[in-house]
Design brief:
Helix content is 44%, strand content 14%. It is an alpha/beta fold.
Length: 552
């Protein structure tokens, strides 16, 4: 056996395995661990096993292949791995949060990025060719040294991450179940539907296609001049359930828990004593203190589908390490990954946030009246989020699902006495936006039916309302004190002059990878760009391990 050839092939394959199979995915996961609902330990063994098997099998194959062919393959592996390493370390800047959005990368950036990759490959091939006849062994030694050093650097970083982050002892558990999802009370039901990314202006499009698209929503009022508080699902959902503002100045998990602890909303729900509370949304948006209040939170150590995790790890590392021009082919979201890979002992009992058809099938099974005297149901549906470029079909489907739900309420005879709120977490930017277009995501769908209404035709209110009025509306519907949270939606008149606050962030990063959160006052019609007035208050958001930001 040629020991020098073995060392050469082994060093290259080990470099590949550490960079792209073990350390790379691990670093990404750990740096964004707050976005995931399962622990690193759930798949650590799979990563190490996969990396080890790759090194062994790939090395054996290279050893038995014809020498010329083996040299070509090993060179490709080395060039590709080194290119990935350089991309991740020096050419990415800070990558955005795991949102699942495509990014319209700057053309200049694309060209510069590709040029660096091509230049590096040309230099490598040139050196190999020049030394081919003179001193091929020195070239091989150089490759071994480079691969060895970079492998060692990453292994040291990997071990350091394990020690400093405590990720090996971080065991996550618990999930949102379907328990109580279809149960309501005879009276005093407050039902909130969050239709993700359903822009209020999408309603106008739907009405042009079908003027009667909202005709079955008897008793409802449509608010076309409503504004959201944030332009992203995080922190919008948590804000809707707590009323607490987020400035991205602390980690997501800490902020979510702090928001629920500071808010008196769930304290009032708990103190009521007559209330059945079901929160059917993404678990990361629910604070720990609310989980014990919910009827549908189940504590359970998370297990994952190892094969699916590996699939996402491949996307994860390729998204980070590929040139900008092809990164969007590997886009994924933490939400998508969580929903897809987590296994439960009773998987049918887990709430499926990303599948509106699944929710529809559950509704078709039939709603029922339970034993609680009051019920608060909060349903988060993926809705338009699943197709940002053409949201109208999904929007129409979402409205149809909600309509069927309302029909079931009518069949049970509890429609009139129910408060129903249909609201989006934010509007639709089309998948990406810049800081000079705040109105793109500021107009969410908002339809509300207060208790006591059922036969009246759909009303339209141009009152300057916002998501700030959602909590008072919920508390009012449950006959609880709400005044310290502000006015209800129906206490704001059409001609009222008021400034609504809106916090807008862009997914587009600057050269240093930062995005900005800006504060706007919205006065007048929220659908008009001239209604948005930048206050001058802004926060830099650094999408890093803890989503740290710094105040300007």
């Amino acid at each position: 056996m040629d020991k020098r050839k073995l060392v050469y092939n082994l060093s290259i394959n080990l470099f590949f395995a550490v960079t792209l199979i073990v350390f790379g995915p691990s670093e990404i996961f750990i740096s964004s661990k707050e976005d995931f609902l399962f622990s690193y330990t759930a798949f650590t063994g799979m990563l190490i096993l996969t990396g080890t098997l790759y090194v062994i099998l790939s090395t054996i194959i290279l050893m038995i292949l014809p020498q010329t062919f083996a040299k070509i393959i090993s060179s490709i592996i080395f060039i590709f791995t080194l290119g990935c390493y350089i991309q991740a370390m020096f050419m990415n800047g800070k990558m955005q949060s795991l949102t699942g959005y495509n990014i319209d990368w700057d053309m200049k950036l694309n060209i510069e990025n590709i040029f660096v990759w091509v230049l590096f490959a040309v230099i490598y091939i040139g050196l190999w060719w020049m030394l081919k006849k003179k001193d091929q062994m020195k070239f091989r030694k150089g490759v071994i040294i480079v691969a060895g050093i970079l492998t060692a650097v990453q292994m040291i970083a990997y071990i350091t991450l394990m020690i400093t982050t405590g990720v090996l002892s971080d065991e996550k558990g618990g999930y949102v179940s379907t328990k109580g999802m279809l149960e309501l009370s005879e009276k005093d039901n407050v039902i909130v539907f969050i239709l993700d990314t359903f822009d209020g202006r999408t309603v106008e499009t739907l009405q042009k296609e079908d003027p009667d698209v909202l005709s079955d929503f008897n008793g409802f009022t449509y608010f076309p001049n409503a504004t959201s508080m944030y332009s992203r699902t995080y922190p919008s959902i948590t804000y809707l359930l707590t009323g607490e503002k987020c400035y991205f100045d602390e980690g997501a998990v800490k902020w979510v828990n702090d928001a629920y602890d500071k808010s008196t909303f769930f304290e009032r729900l708990r103190n009521d004593g007559l209330l059945n509370i079901g929160l059917y949304t993404y678990p990361a948006y629910i604070g720990d203190c609310a989980k014990d209040t919910m009827v549908n939170w189940e504590w359970e150590k998370q297990r994952v589908d190892q094969y699916k995790v590996l699939k996402y790890m491949i996307k994860m590392i390729l998204y980070r390490d590929m040139p900008y021009v092809i990164k969007n082919y590997f886009v994924y979201s933490a939400d998508e990954m969580n929903n897809d890979v987590i296994l439960q002992e009773n998987s049918d009992e887990q709430y499926q946030f990303s599948d509106d058809e699944w929710f529809n099938s559950k509704v078709e099974e039939g709603l029922k009246i339970g034993g609680a005297q009051k019920t608060f149901q909060f349903y988060h549906l993926a809705s338009c989020h699943m197709n940002l470029s053409d949201p109208t079909p999904l929007g129409k489907r979402s409205l149809e699902i909600v309509r069927k739900y309302c029909d079931s309420l009518k069949e049970l005879g509890i429609y009139k006495d129910s408060t129903i709120i249909i609201v989006a977490d934010h509007g639709n930017s089309g998948g990406g936006n810049t800081l000079d277009l705040p109105q793109k995501t500021a107009v969410p769908l908002l339809l509300v039916k207060p208790a006591g209404r059922d036969e009246e035709k759909l009303a339209v209110s141009n009152a300057p309302v916002s998501q700030t009025e959602i909590l008072p509306q919920i508390l009012s519907g449950l006959s609880l004190k709400y005044e310290d949270y502000g006015q209800t939606l129906f206490e704001i008149s059409n001609d009222e002059q008021r400034n609504r606050m809106y916090y807008y962030s862009s997914l587009y990063s600057d050269e240093e990878g930062e995005v900005e959160l800006r504060e706007y006052k919205v006065s007048g019609d929220a659908r008009l760009p001239e209604s948005y007035h930048y206050t001058g208050n802004s926060w830099d958001i650094l999408y890093s391990a803890n989503r740290v930001s710094r105040k300007k």
